[in-house]
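Problem: given the chain below (264 residues), write out its structure.
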Amino acid sequence: MNSCTGCGACIIACQAENNVPVVGKEEVRMSRDMYWLRIDRYYSSRQKVEVYEGLKEGMAVPELYGTAFGDGGALNHPADNPDVIFQPVMCQHCNHAPCETVCPVAATSHGKQGQNHMAYNRCIGTRYCANNCPYKVRRFNWFTYNLNDKFDYNMNNDLGRMVLNPDVVVRTRGVMEKCSMCIQMTQNTILEAKKEGRRVKDGEFQTACSKACSTGAMTFGDMNDKDSSIRKVYASNRRYYLLEEIGTKPNVFYHTKVRNRVEK
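Solution.
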């Protein structure tokens, strides 16, 4: 969290690598956005608030803002210079994934390498997985976005379709989409190492988002390699998971943000 600047390069890289369609602002307004990776922004204020045991008689509502009451409730003025934290959120690839247990056709399943996979030609679009996902990272294809005049962005002509990644299938209407942890990139790394008769080197594994991150805020690696850099990062006491208390056991973890400033 200390390194992420919220630039959004990871989002664009993810879209380009995985043929994620551009749906347009009208669809986004109806909550039909198609990002596999989003950046959540959290703002906080450091202003001091006065504590009251109760409401003063006759106090107007606008005067209550910025006041914390004895019953635990609080209303704050927005700060002129708030603190902000950027948190990229993609599919957490849970080891106890709630989405896998509710799919009636087993279109989403757990792979031996730890990823949560999607079989698009098996999905029938019940959207049970989206309803059961606590991280809200699954997306539903409301339309066929390629070769569709209503979505004339990058998939309607031969030149635009040449930009598509041939290693990733273009999804159709009625199926769920989500982050695949760039399975095509990791598999290619494994096959290249296998052809050369060696083990995958530390740092050789990459995903589109980690490769595009200019500050190194996102890293990807093999947790089974005890000497890898990802295991050293994992051992830090700053590590935390999203919604850890619900027991999904994600394979994605974060480092809490530390602000180095002197309190006065």
